Amino acid sequence: FPTRRSSDLKIPANEIETVIFVSSTGFAVPSLETYLMQNLGFSPQAQRIPIVGWGCTGGIAGLQLAMKLAKNNPLAKILLINLETCSLA
Hints:
By secondary structure, the protein is an alpha/beta fold. The protein has helices at residues 32-40, 57-72, and strands at residues 18-23, 47-52, 78-82. The longest helix has 16 residues, at 57-72.
């Protein structure tokens, strides 16, 4: 994979194809990325994959899934979000 700094990538939200959302705190239906995606201009067709309640292993699971998806489609635009809200829970 070519390495790029995140500051080099300027991808509009509506071009992101997959959003992987990882959090070990709190359960919500719909999950939190739904609200983020609606308010930040993501495409309604973007695939959402919430990984919630896995503790520290959730981050590893999210990274593994993102890498697997990227290997299967090197041109895919995948966003991995890890958000912990422990102080709010």
